[in-house]
Amino acid sequence: MLKNFFHKKKRYATIPSERSKKDIPEGLIVKCNKCHKITFAKELEKNYHVCPHCDHHLTVSAPDRVRMVLDDGNFFEYDTDLISTDPLNFEGYINKLEKDMEKTNLNEAVVTGEGTIGGYPVVIGVMDSRFRMGSMGSVVGEKITRAIEKALVKQYPFILFSASGGARMQEGILSLMQMAKTSAALAKLHEKGILFISVLTNPTTGGVSASFASLGDINIAEPNALIGFAGRRIIEQTIRQKLPDDFQTSEFLLKHGQLDMIVHRKDMRKTLIKLIDIHQVKGGM
Ligand SMILES: [Zn+2]
């Protein structure tokens, strides 16, 4: 009986997305960081945060991304209570976390949860580069791992949007450990034949690119995103060679077999629906 009671609860709640809208006061203009031309924020929002002048894909917050991708922006968020601690007593870390929490209204650099897309239930994770540059500490790794485990139990496809500067230095080895933890969880998903679509957005670098972001059954990137492990200068100094201009871009990676496709942001939702649709196993997944 108790079980029935809980089942009657509304399955999906709307994420508190209004807050991020308030970040853009009426009439404010946004300058493209590529072509430097200006656009009205409202117009930019309608255009999926893609510059109408040069097609540059600007940074998208996790709540905006969820709204753009899922049905009607309906979404049930997981683990909103997980907050990072300061295991290494790293100077200023807690202060920085608190500032980012206030700035973004998020508890950490990734939002995870479940919702539907084109009517298909999915588990989704979206990283937010506004929070500590989307770096992966213990909480980011834990939230992603728990989301993967939910997808495993529910047998829902898992979609993850990455945007990250890599492992979080303020948590040292504990951050690096998240690479192994998330990868091990994904291996279980793979064994069960559950679809994982990884979407790499600008930028996806360091430990995130070197773990779950590259482990999709299908790896998609947004156009012209910076994707790589170490920075260009470090690699050039190490190998003592000049790297090509388009090195570490989505287009370069696609050409060299590291990506399956590059998808424009305006086509992302329909592409994801199509991919999930083709991977449905009739009579249950
Ligand atoms: Zn532009």
UniProtKB/TrEMBL annotation:
Gene Ontology biological process terms, A to Z: fatty acid biosynthetic process; malonyl-CoA biosynthetic process
Top enzyme class: transferase
Cofactor: Zn(2+)
Catalytic activity: N(6)-carboxybiotinyl-L-lysyl-[protein] + acetyl-CoA = N(6)-biotinyl-L-lysyl-[protein] + malonyl-CoA
InterPro entries, sorted: AcCoA_carboxyl_beta, Acetyl_CoA_COase_Trfase_b_su, ClpP/crotonase-like_dom_sf, COA_CT_N, Znf-ACC
Chief location: cytoplasm
Gene Ontology cellular-component annotations: acetyl-CoA carboxylase complex
Cofactor info, note text: Binds 1 zinc ion per subunit.
UniProt-annotated location(s): Cytoplasm
Pathway note: Lipid metabolism; malonyl-CoA biosynthesis; malonyl-CoA from acetyl-CoA: step 1/1
Domain CoA carboxyltransferase N-terminal span(s) in chain numbering: 28-285
GO molecular function list: acetyl-CoA carboxylase activity; ATP binding; carboxyl- or carbamoyltransferase activity; zinc ion binding
Keyword flag Hydrolase: no
One Pfam family cited in the UniProt record for this chain: Zn_ribbon_ACC
UniProt superkingdom: Bacteria
Binding-site positions, Zn(2+): C32, C35, C51, C54
Summary of the function given for this chain in its UniProt record: Component of the acetyl coenzyme A carboxylase (ACC) complex. Biotin carboxylase (BC) catalyzes the carboxylation of biotin on its carrier protein (BCCP) and then the CO(2) group is transferred by the transcarboxylase to acetyl-CoA to form malonyl-CoA.
Subunit and partners: Acetyl-CoA carboxylase is a heterohexamer composed of biotin carboxyl carrier protein (AccB), biotin carboxylase (AccC) and two subunits each of ACCase subunit alpha (AccA) and ACCase subunit beta (AccD).
Family in the record: Belongs to the AccD/PCCB family.
Protein name as catalogued: Acetyl-coenzyme A carboxylase carboxyl transferase subunit beta
